[in-house]
Inverse folding.
């Protein structure tokens, strides 16, 4: 059986994801599609709309064969580490291809860009440092340095100001650096870009646009044209049970309490907290009754909204610099959901897997990376401010992989 891997968050699973899924299967002529998916906290540093089990069910209902969890340490990391963790897991599962969406739509440009930046690594890093010293954010410094290094290139290169191109580049980079056998493919992103508003006249919208509409109207009818019916059903079931969707605004009372129970010096111990921003975080938390007002006080040219959110995610989940530095690569494969086809593929691999396959977590309490995932899951349910959701605490010990 030939397998293709995709890297996803499915927050929530929408028609654009369905297009990507079907195109990935068709383009690689694969028998099995494996999705490595973020857990309850995401790469942009925010809680997921619904939990990982619900999103995994959406995926398998729509045609994904196997969903495995990307551990928290990678799911909430900057793009290069996010990609490294995901590609490592897909390669470990013997995927022949990984297929990502991009604004570029051409693989050659990605390969040329990797060769350019790896060949000029010293000059590139020097340029990044120079731009950072000018007081701009790290992502903007990367882009400015890239423009400088690529100015005289005679081959087609990727536009690294586009969010999906950036992730795609890091997937390619990870495959090279890991010396992985998995091969890349890319699909041109259609209609909706990453941050676009949802257009009611279309059937494809970005997940960001869909969430904005949902939180604005709190009515699933307003987004049903953008999602498969199976996703709408799962969202309806979730909201009936818990009366809340995951967001920092909803989590704010818990996050604010956690921030203020620390001293400013203690906040500096958490991952990604740098350059004294712990002072601004603590001061803003003292004065802010909403997450939006809190963020408006601490955002700056130096730190992007996403980077600040990742800092807050680590504060909320008590994930420290010391823990981050000990987590180089994923240490296990954890299935969340699968089709019968995915189950057959996984069974065929069991003897050849180099990483432990974890279906029941109780026997793996010594695995620090896994325990971090479980802690983050429990804190996610607490953050929902819902009595029914609080009953989900400890759910990772009770849940076996879903088979549909």
């Amino acid at each position: 059986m030939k397998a293709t891997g995709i890297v996803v968050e499915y927050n929530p699973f929408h028609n654009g994801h369905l297009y990507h899924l079907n195109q990935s299967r068709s383009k690689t002529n694969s028998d099995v599609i494996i999705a490595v998916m973020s857990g309850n906290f995401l790469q942009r540093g925010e809680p997921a709309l619904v939990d990982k089990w619900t999103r995994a069910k959406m995926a398998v209902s729509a045609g994904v064969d196997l969903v495995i969890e990307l551990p928290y340490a990678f799911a909430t990391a900057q793009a290069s580490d996010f990609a490294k963790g995901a590609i490592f897991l897909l390669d470990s599962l013997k995927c022949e291809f990984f297929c990502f969406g991009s604004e570029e739509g051409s693989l050659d440009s990605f390969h040329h860009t990797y060769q350019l930046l790896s060949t000029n690594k010293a000059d590139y890093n020097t340029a990044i440092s120079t731009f950072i010293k000018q007081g701009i954010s790290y992502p903007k410094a990367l882009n400015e340095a890239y423009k400088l290094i690529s100015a005289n290139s005679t081959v087609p290169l990727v536009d690294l100001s586009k969010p999906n191109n950036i992730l795609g580049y890091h997937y390619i980079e990870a495959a090279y650096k890991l010396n992985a056998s998995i091969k890349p493919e890319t699909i041109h992103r259609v209609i909706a870009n990453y941050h676009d508003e949802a257009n009611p006249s279309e059937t494809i919208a970005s997940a960001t646009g869909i969430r904005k509409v949902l939180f604005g109207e709190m009515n699933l009818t307003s987004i049903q044209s953008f999602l498969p019916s199976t996703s709408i059903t799962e969202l309806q079931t979730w909201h009936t049970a818990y009366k809340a969707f995951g967001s920092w605004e909803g989590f704010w009372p818990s996050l604010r309490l956690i921030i203020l129970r620390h001293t400013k010096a203690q906040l500096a111990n958490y991952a990604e907290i740098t350059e004294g921003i712990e002072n601004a975080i603590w001061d803003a938390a003292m004065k802010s009754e909403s997450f939006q007002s809190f963020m408006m006080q601490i955002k700056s040219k130096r730190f992007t909204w996403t980077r600040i959110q990742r800092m807050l995610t680590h504060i909320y989940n008590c994930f420290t610099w010391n823990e981050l530095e000990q987590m180089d690569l994923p240490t296990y494969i954890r299935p969340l959901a699968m089709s019968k086809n995915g189950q057959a593929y996984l069974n065929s691999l069991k003897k050849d897997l180099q990483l432990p396959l974890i279906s029941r977590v109780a026997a793996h309490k010594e695995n620090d990376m896994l325990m971090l995932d479980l802690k983050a899951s429990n804190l996610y349910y607490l953050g929902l401010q819902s009595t029914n959701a609080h009953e989900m605490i400890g759910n990772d010990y009770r849940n076996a992989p879903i088979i549909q």
Remarks:
- The domain at 3-103+167-246+329-403 is CATH 3.40.50.620 (Rossmann fold).
- The longest helix spans residues 368-383.
- The two ends are 19 Å apart (CA to CA).
- The longest strand covers residues 32-38.
